[in-house]
Amino acid sequence: MKVNNKSNYIDIQIGHHEIIINERYEFFYNLNDVFIALCFLVGSVLFLWDSFETYAIWMFIVGSGLFLIRPMIKFIKRFHLKKVHNN
Fold this sequence. Notes:
By secondary structure, the protein is mainly α. It has helices at about 15-45, 55-85. The protein is built from two helices and no strands.
């Protein structure tokens, strides 16, 4: 079937495996976001005291590393869904 008007086109793919995969990866994505927020919040608070400056810097480094994981979770989910669709 060819669709001429994309604005009226809805692509719905519902399958048991796809729903479970989406929910699992969404959970990990959101959990990662919570850890990012905690790292930056704790790091910011630690910067209030000079004696904790090194720990604050490490919290920012860890939080930045967790930012790198965010897109990787999406890529892994995409590859996982592609693998499921090909089987």
